[in-house]
Structures are given as structure tokens and as C-alpha cells.
Amino acid sequence: MKETIMKKYRLLNRIMNRISENHTGAYAAQSAFFIVLSMIPFIMLLLALVQYTPVTKADVIRAVTHVLPKTIYPMIVSIVNQVYNQSQAMISLTGLVAIWSAGRGVLAMSAGLNSVYGSKETRNYIYLRLRAAFYTVLFIIAIVLSLVILGFGDRLSIFIVNHYPFMKGIIDLIINIRAVASIVVLTVFSMTIYHFLPNKKTKFIRQFPGAFLTAIGWAAASYIFSAYVNIFTGFSTMYGSMTTIMLIMLWLYACMYIMLLGGEVNEMLAEDFFTSM
């Protein structure tokens, strides 16, 4: 019993030392900050594209106010109004430039994973920036999946069924399997990030343990975030109009931290297990 406790203590101490040495918190904070910067331009781009469909501004606002909690939807409604009142070409150009610039969030994550995996960055800077812009879009898609489907899926399903009753069977099926499906998608996404972002050759399948833990962690963080914004109001009193941004920043920081921890798990397994195979 005592030996088991000591083993767990040594393992925990080793993990904490790695987290400190690799500056996990700092890289997670950088990633979260710059990805938040890229989220609004990305939403603007999506809304600019929506204008080419039969969906109207009223439809978008109605969906936002029904699906998202009161803490978040004022910001989204403001973005919707700006997009529909400005030039689509200018919005698209601004969005693309902003996403390119905000690719620094992915660069920060790449630097963090390089630190975790013990590798140095030697790749061309232009290549890294182009790749970062691409992965920024992937990150935002994964973030939206986590937040909307896992966090606010019930609100979304009620809204869709109320407006399109014939889809009830399909929506019920999606809601029933959403947790499993989201875990699978997030696991594959995380494996892709661990395999391609760091400047180190790794086998794709060996990224599964950390990727699976990351997917579970993201799902848990999304549920906690959803419960908090739906139940508590103290945060709104403290930060006022900045509440939405602060909540998203905290949630995203937790997600980025969890992703870097998943990388730590993969690297520790590579050192202790895979090297002996």
C-alpha cells in the first residue's frame, strides 16, 4: 500500500516538474488569447457566406437568441448586425487578414508542443504561418463543436425541433450519440495536432492516449462551462460587459492546457514504454 502511494506521488511529482519546465501554462495562455482573437473574424466570415443563402438576418438572430445563453448572445448579435450592415467584400478581406494574424495562437501551441516533445523549431517561417492559418480554422471548428454541440446541444435541439418538427427523429439520434461522436472527432483532431504540429516525427497511432484524454477533458470543460453560464451570475456582476470574453478566455485556456497535458502524457509514454518495445 505504501509503495503504491509512493509510486503515485513520484508520478505526480514528475508530471508537475514537466509542466513547470515546459512552461505549459504560459503556452496555453498565449494560444487561448490569439485563438480568441481569430474567433470573431471567423464568425464574420461564416456570416458573410450565410448571406448568399436563403437564411435571413432575422433567422440568424433568432437562432442565436434561442440556442446560446444570455451571457453570450449579445456579443454574437452585435457581430451579426455589423456583418449585415457592412460590405461583404470588406468583411471577407478583414476576416482573412485577421485569421492570418491570429494564427499566432497555433504558433504558440506548436511552440508549446515542441517544448513538451523536446524538439527545436527548424521549419521555414512562411510555411509555419501558412500552416498556422489553416490549423487556426481547424481549432475554431473543434472549439465550436465542443461548445455548441456538447455545451448547448439541448438548446440547439429544442430550437431545431420547434422550427423543423420533421427532423425530430434525426435530432434525437444526434443528441443521444453526441457525447460519443464528439469524443471520437476530438480524439482524431487531437491526434492530428500531436502528429503534425511539433517538429518531431511521431507515429500517428501512438498519439492516441494523450488525444483521448484531451477529448475527455475538452468535453468535461465544455459541460462545466455550459452549467456555469446557465446557473451562475456572479461572474457577470464582476466583469460586466467583458463577461462573455472572460468566460470564453477561461474556458479556452483550460482546453489549451488540457491539450498540452495530453502531449505530456504521450511523451512520457514514449519515454517509458514505447522506447522499450
UniProtKB/TrEMBL annotation:
Pfam families hit by this protein: Virul_fac_BrkB (PF03631)
UniProt-annotated location(s): Cell membrane
TM segment ranges: 26-50, 89-111, 132-153, 173-197, 209-232, 238-260
UniProt feature coiled coil, ranges: none
Keywords, in A-Z order: Cell membrane, Membrane, Transmembrane, Transmembrane helix
Primary location recorded for the protein, binned into one broad class: membrane
Top-rank lineage group of the source organism: Bacteria
Topology within the bilayer: Multi-pass membrane protein
Annotated signal sequence range: none
Gene Ontology CC terms: plasma membrane
InterPro entries, per database record: Virul_fac_BrkB
Annotated protein name in UniProt: Membrane protein
Taxonomic path: Bacteria, Bacillati, Bacillota, Clostridia, Lachnospirales
